[in-house]
Amino acid sequence: MILVALAGCLMVSPVSATDERFPRVERPVAPIISPAYSTEEERDHHGEAERVLNRLRVHPGMRVADIGAGDGYYTVRLARRLGPGATIYAEDVSEPYLARLAGRLAREEIRGVTLVHGTAADPRLLATSIDLAILAHVYHEIEQPYEFMYRLHAALRPTGRVAIIDLDRPTPEHGIPPALLRCELTAVGYRRIDFVSLAPADGYLAVFAPPKTLPRPEDIRPCPG
User: Fold this and answer.
1) Is the separation of the CB atoms in 198 and 48 below 8 Å?
2) How many whole angstroms separate alpha carbon 208 and alpha carbon 192?
3) Which of 17, 99, 145, 201 is positioned for an S-S bond with 48, CB 3.0–4.6 A?
4) Is 114 within 8 Å of 90 (Cβ atoms)?
């Protein structure tokens, strides 16, 4: 079912059962506690989004997904960067967060955003629909990261990339050490191609290229947490 919202389209998907072929993560998964990380004013004061989008060379014509969009910090700034004709997918597992984001986009008259209701194991994006996926302060909250990253692969175009912004601290403290993040994505076949600290903003940016061929789900080995 597709519902048309003032801000765009809201793609509503049923919650999918976990595929038992995929391993469970061997570390704590942080609970979802807020649709926002810090305040937008504080993040902009430290230049977070500007630095991230510049580093990723985001430009008009790119198709981008904001995974775990929450209140839309990156969604809104992507819309400004991409301009008229933008193609942006704002994905979240929380319907209330998506509804609130739809209201914000309507108030700010932002177009070109498709809202997607994903699941803990699948972002539910269309095949080969994006050049870039941004996961900002959300990866450590994904309940089934191996299956999630496996299914995200189908949405990426051949030259697509995955950009993860997170904190270098244990997952129960709402972060993930870079070495552990790299291990988990490598287990699904992704290859890290860039890494940079975002100081004075919080955390780091890690960029990954998807594999040409995914491993079999049953061959994925979880990383020790």
Assistant:
1) yes
2) 4
3) 201
4) yes
Q: Please report, to the nearest 10 degrees, the dihedral formed by the alpha carbons of residues 148, 193, 52, 203 taken in order.
A: 70
Amino acid, single-letter form, for residue 76: V
Torsion of CA 156, 160, 165, 166, to 10 degrees: 60
- Least confident span in 9-13, 80-84, 183-187, 212-216: 9-13
Q: Are 72 and 40 in contact (CB under 8 A)?
A: no
- Residues 125-146: tens digit of each pLDDT: 999 999 999 999 999 999 999 9
Whether 11 and 88 have beta carbons less than 8 Å apart is answered as no
The strand ranges marked E within 12-95 are: 63-67, 87-92
User: Does residue 200 have a cis bond before it (omega within 30 degrees)?
Assistant: yes
Position 17 scores a pLDDT of 60
Contact 175, 140 (CB under 8 A): yes
Domains of the chain: 60-212 (3.40.50.150)
- Token pair 């699948």 is found at 122
For residue 33, give the amino acid letter: I
Sheet containing 87-92: order of strands: 2-5, 8-11, 113-117, 87-92, 63-67, 130-136, 156-166, 204-209, 191-197
Structure tokens at 131: 């050049």
SS3 83: coil
Instruction: Collapse the DSSP code of 44 into the 3-class scheme (helix H, G, I; strand E, B; otherwise coil) and give the result.
Output: helix
Taking a C-beta distance cutoff of 8 angstroms, is the pair 66, 134 a contact? yes
